[in-house]
Amino acid sequence: MKIFSLSILLTTSSGPSTLLSTASDLSSFSFYQRGSVAEFMTFFSRTVVERTQATQRQSVQEGNYTAHVWNRGGPENIAGIIITDHEYPVRPAFSLIAKLLDDFITKVPQSTYTTSAAPSIPFPEIETYLQKYQDPRQADAIMRVQQELDETKIVLHKTIESVLQRGEKLDNLVDRSQALSAQSKMFYKTAKKQNSCCVIM
Hints:
Layout: E1 3-10, E2 18-24, H1 34-49, E3 57-62, E4 65-73, E5 78-85, H2 90-107, H3 111-114, H4 125-132, H5 140-145, E6 154-157, H6 170-176, H7 182-194
Parallel strand pairs: 3-6
Antiparallel strand pairs: 1-2, 1-5, 3-4, 4-5
Helix pairs in contact: 1-7
């Protein structure tokens, strides 16, 4: 069981989301792949978050990965997303997101991330969460205090295409993305052809 990425994003009712804080563990990828994989983690996170309605929880499976996202909505307009392998259980993933977002809201004043177009929020606790909850059993204590989480309210999508808008294609989003370097776009195309380990393959 593995957590690859944990992120907090600022959402809007229309328009792109803003990455506020993120942590990743890319040790299972080769040194030369990590830059491209990190870009795709961010791209994948934004793509899924922007297609998750306020207050909705959903899990999106793609290739060897599952993205669990909760768009918390409310006055803070933030969302949490965790990218894991398929073995990582759903309930601890969402318990972790809930705790992470609660901690973020408590420790980070809302004014620091709503007044800037592209804020980067110092929140070192996200690294602690990433490391501590690699073992989902560590989330047991969280789960006991998160009994209101109803698994039936989590929407499971088998592929990223199922959350894209009608007519959208992932290949086209990759080609148009300003957030991905030419090297990462080439990495995506090569990985797709070889059906190898790419975050969104």
